[in-house]
Design a protein that fits this description.
Blueprint: H1 2-61, E1 66-71, E2 89-93, E3 106-116, H2 119-124, E4 127-134, E5 140-148, H3 155-171, E6 177-189, E7 198-203, E8 212-219, H4 224-230, H5 232-295, H6 305-308
Antiparallel strand pairs: 1-8, 2-7, 3-6, 3-8, 4-5, 4-7
Transmembrane segments: 38-61, 156-175, 229-251
Organism: Aphis craccivora
Pfam families: Seipin
């Protein structure tokens, strides 16, 4: 009977140990899966935050590359004779309230004037175009004037060119006109106190004939802006990589600051709990072993604390 009880106790201990080991393995797997999923979510979040930061920096730092506006010339006609009584002029409003050009960025302002190759324009020769930049309150920010004329063509060149272009002229695919480019500003920089909102044009000639005109404002990129525009992939990789390092460093420091001492304290508490459990388990085993030995008559009697503390007579 005693042997059966001993075997049952051994079997129960083996089963308990197996169950404990299985539960430990399952808990370890669950903990590893949880930590892996949490780490993956954190890495994905850091990557997306880095990409978003680079995109936000790109749109905040990079200016619009080009602005284009049509220029509609106006004039007053004369009643006494043919022609114009004043200079052809135009007003172009870039923006009403918000600032269009970026502070600290240099721009090239160019006016394209389309002129017919008419005898009148040939006789005029040189002409002058003036531009005035002002803010929304009418303050004159800057002014500039440029001169130009139609490109000279000899009579022989005209005949050869006309004979070659006759099919295109007859079908309307081309016309006898020239596009004159007038660079009004090479490196114009916006004034922070007086942002440009309106541009006024004036052609200083009464008899000039104009087909159309157009205003182009192009940003002269330099430095980091030049690299970000002309090498976007390399700049994006470097920018996102820098953001990854920065965000990961901040996250790791925050994680250690918030959860570091608590995790260390929990590890110490777990170690203390395990040691206490082992002590309890050893004490229980010793008491059980002593009981078994007493039952099997290996010891004449059971030792107790009271018997051990009695001094010799």
């Amino acid at each position: 009977m005693m042997k059966m009880l001993g075997l049952k106790r051994i079997v129960d201990e083996k089963v308990d140990k197996t169950v404990d080991m299985a539960s430990d393995v399952v808990n370890c797997l669950l903990d590893t899966t949880y930590k892996g999923g949490l780490f993956s979510m954190i890495i994905v979040t850091i990557v997306w935050v880095s990409i978003f930061l680079y995109i936000a920096f790109y749109y905040a730092y990079m200016p619009s590359l080009m602005f284009s506006r049509p220029v509609h010339m106006q004039f007053k006609s004369c009643y006494s004779n043919k022609g114009l009584c004043d200079y052809p002029s135009a007003h172009v409003q870039l923006t009403k309230n918000h600032q269009l050009l970026m502070i600290g960025q240099k721009y090239k302002i160019t006016v394209y004037v389309e002129l017919p190759e008419s005898p009148v324009n040939e006789d005029i020769g040189m002409f002058m175009l003036c531009v005035r930049l002002s803010d929304k309150y009418g303050y004159l920010v800057s002014s500039s004037c440029r001169s130009s004329r139609l490109k000279y063509k000899s009579q022989f060149y005209r005949v050869i060119h006309t004979l070659f272009m006759v099919p295109f002229y007859l079908t309307g695919l081309s016309a006898e006109k020239q596009l004159i480019q007038l660079e009004m500003y090479t490196d114009f920089e916006e004034d922070q106190l007086h942002p440009v909102t309106d541009i006024y044009f004036e052609m200083l000639n009464h008899d000039i004939q104009i087909y159309s005109a157009k205003l182009n404002i192009v940003a002269n990129l330099g430095g980091l802006r030049y690299l970000m525009f002309h090498w976007p992939i390399v700049s994006a990789c470097l920018g996102i990589g820098s953001n990854l390092l920065f965000v990961f460093f901040i996250f790791s420091m925050s994680w250690r600051h918030i959860y570091g001492p608590e995790v260390f304290r929990n590890d110490q508490n777990d170690f203390l709990d395990r040691s206490e459990r082992l002590d309890e388990f050893d004490s229980e085993d010793e008491s059980e072993v002593s009981d078994d030995l007493c039952k099997k008559d290996f010891l004449p009697f059971r030792f107790s604390s009271s018997s051990l503390m009695i001094p010799e007579q």
